[in-house]
Design a protein that fits this description.
The structure is a single chain. The chain has 311 residues and is an alpha/beta fold. The chain folds into two domains: 156 residues, Ribonuclease E inhibitor RraA/RraA-like (Glucose Oxidase, domain 1), CATH 3.50.30; 69 residues, no CATH class. The chain is built from twelve helices and twelve strands. Strands 1, 2, 3, 4, 5, 6, 7, 8, 11 and 12 form a ten-stranded mixed sheet that branches. Helix 4 packs across helix 9. It starts with a helix and ends with a helix.
Amino acid sequence: MIKRLFFGVLIFLLNVPMHGQGVMATSDFVKELTSNWEGERFEDGRPKVSDALLKRLKNIQIEEAWGYLKNKGYNNQYDGGWKILHPEQVMTGRVLTSQYMPLRPDYQQVVKEKGGKEKRDTIGGSNSWPIEILKPGDIYVADGYGRIIDGTLIGSNLGNAIYTNSQNGVIFDGGVRDVAGLLDIKGFNGWFRGDDPSYLKEQMLTSINNPIRIGRAIVLPGDVVLANQHGVVFIPSHLVAELVISSEVVGLRDVFGFQRLREKTYTPGQIDTKWTDAIKADFLKWIKKYPDEKLPMTRTELNTYLEKHYN
């Protein structure tokens, strides 16, 4: 009995982390969070969805992405009601997360000490820490719990630093300041809750690259963002490729359907409901003749998708 108890305690101690949680999630933890991803990763463990897919994603409608995710059981990936620097533009990119909370001195001291051990700048504000590790194509996504007054996570100085490192923009469940200066940063865009001239006050960074909540959405590091004037969708990395091509095929189906309606080959009721086998066969015949240069995907990708879903 004593021997079994001894070995039980020993096993427990061997499984207890020897070091406390840091400010930034470990690469192993990020890999565990995103274990369904099978491709390339960054050093911090985040999935590295290709630039080519990010570019194609810009042509996908929010409703199509939302519908695809909902059909997969991901019902909490969208949030709306944003102010946007350039609402006419679409932004896609890979998520780097950060979380902010109301300031508490003892906890702030712990965060500062942990940041020092992670070799972060402890002289300036900790709100620069996520910015310093952004990679090209990243989108800085921050949970500022909707705070605007005294909750301005960036102004034009940090905005310039963000764009220099990521060549992209931000999504903040919080505020920004100096909107005029942010608008002057060519190529930079931002989705945020509001703007205010106040500085960041009584608020502190608590974590980087951990799961966060943005409005009614849950966001993991390495998710992919699709953001436009209609809202923001956070897409799990392992679903991006199929989401993109399935949405692209929906677009091609629409082109086919509109053409056949103009030709009066089918009635609106026939096109706007589940297709018969005859209409499916007609679509497959039509798509074979569709010009390759007009396809949003390669012909090989299209054929693979059609063989899987239309046979």
